[in-house]
Amino acid sequence: MLACFRARDQGLSNQALAVRCGLPKSTVSRLTYTLTRLGYLEHDPDSGLYRLGSATLSLGSTVLSRMDVRHRARPLMQRLADETQTMVSLGARDRLNMIYVENCRSQAALKLTLDVGSRLPLATTAMGRAYLLACPDAVRDDLLQRLREAHPGLDVDACLAAAQDDERRNGVCCSFGDWLPDVNAIAIAFQPHGSRTLVSLNCGGPAAHLSREYLLERVRPRLMAVVRALQAPPEVAG
């Protein structure tokens, strides 16, 4: 139920939560009561809406603190962002989305409002496509089927084919206006040294400043170098 909340939501009613969760409203009412008592939800008596409570912060901070790759990756990501004038983001999968677990901006990318905790779709973003190609076959098949059911108007197979072609040609997955018309990005999925978690590293930003050619010719080699460093043991990478 907590995962039903999105950054743009000002609050959700029991009815809205029931629709998003696919649960009976009576069940949702019992759950919201319990979660409010525990501090995971806050209830506005005037509007009747629920918002995420402060207790959810401890859940996210606990998970992030266990991701050692964030601490190794951040200085490399910031240097990459500054050198290429992009926003560099590290993401992990959460159901049918990728969620940012670390984020570094250059001065040129300050207008982008995405940050740690932002959720991006799997099929249309460079970060999500990179994950789809790198994950085990059985996981990919399951995700593709779930994406087809969740987004019947989206040609999921065409998205996958485009990602396969990009990776074959360039060694990265791309999204040039596929997610948002004014955003371009490239990404690589990999397992950091000593970790079994598959993550994606993404470089992107406003299409007006970051052309396809610039990302592929200038940014791509630097992105690949950062990924290699994070795949290597710390003493080798350093």
Summary keywords:
single chain; 238 residues; alpha+beta; Arc Repressor Mutant, subunit A; Beta-Lactamase; 2 domains; six-stranded antiparallel sheet; two-stranded antiparallel ribbon; 9 helices
User: How are the strands ordered across the major sheet?
Assistant: 5-4-3-8-7-6
CATH architectural designation of the largest domain: 2-Layer Sandwich
| First and last CA, distance | 42 Å
- As for the number of domains, it is 2
CATH class assignment of the largest domain: Alpha Beta
- The CATH topology name of the largest domain reads Beta-Lactamase
**Number of DSSP strand runs:** 8
Structural class: alpha+beta
Nearest-angstrom radius of gyration? 19 Å
Low-confidence parts, pLDDT < 50 over ≥5 residues? none
Query: Helix tally?
Result: 9
Mind summarizing the main beta sheet? Answer: 6 strands, antiparallel
Measured as a percent range, the helix fraction is 40-55%
Strand content: 15-25%
Average pLDDT works out at 89
CATH homolog superfamily of the largest domain: GAF domain
What is the overall silhouette? globular
- The ordered H/E elements are HHEEHHEEEHHHEEEHH
Walkthrough of the structure:
The chain has 238 residues and is an alpha+beta fold. It folds into two domains: 2-59, Arc Repressor Mutant, subunit A (Orthogonal Bundle), CATH 1.10.10.10; 67-237, GAF domain (Beta-Lactamase, 2-Layer Sandwich). Helices cover 47% and strands 19% of the residues. It has helices spanning 14-21, 25-38, 55-65, 68-84, 126-134, 137-150, 156-170, 212-231, 234-237, and strands at 41-43, 50-52, 87-94, 97-105, 119-121, 173-176, 183-190, 199-206. A six-stranded antiparallel beta sheet has the order 5-4-3-8-7-6. A hairpin with a 2-residue loop joins strand 3 (87-94) and strand 4 (97-105). It is globular and about 55 Å long. The relative contact order is 0.12. The model has no long low-confidence stretch (mean pLDDT 89).
